[in-house]
From TrEMBL:
Keywords: Signal. The keyword Signal applies. This is Uncharacterized protein. Residues 1-25 form the signal peptide.
Amino acid sequence: MKKRIFSVLVCLAVLVSTTMFQVGASYQPTDARQAEIDALIAKTDSHVLEAESINTSEVLPFIQASAVYEQDDGTQTPVDVDLQIQKLGTLTRAAGGGTLYEVKASTKKEEGSAGGGRKVQANATLYWIDNLGPVNELYRVKGEWINSLYDTANPESAGVLYGEFPANVPGDSCVAKHPNAMSFDYYADDITGYTLGVQTSIKCEKNGILYLIVTSSIFS
């Protein structure tokens, strides 16, 4: 009996999460810390960062991204994802320390695939801080959906889930949003944890629902 891709992933994630212990460390945002983070993001030059791209397989093996199309009949088709990771800089000790990373993920447009031809494109960006110790910090998530020539998405169906994963039930450490638009940009409010991520979803007119998930973790 075939098990659906997401069901397997969620079950495994829940199993891993039950073995984790709670850590009391919490990185409270301050004006100085936020100012430094925003300054690092604002001064980012895409051409410079492209030349300084990190080899994810050697330096940051704990970043994962996946995308799936789920058709109306429940059939799920994996979709290729482009992943880019950039180190934006290190925060000063006065601002609490930590290293700021930017993770960008984007689904690839495909024609003639099992999912039904060229699809709506989904992009997501995750900003997170690698703090000293096991507890990392989520700072910001943003993204967009782009219609293709052959399919369109309904902005009223757009959904975003971000925070500590696995995100089984939205709560203090996991936030659910419905932007009702083809783009989003949210700042996390004191969200820390082992595995931080963002999941986006949107209803496509022809091919069901497109899911994109990006996570960072201290575990491989």
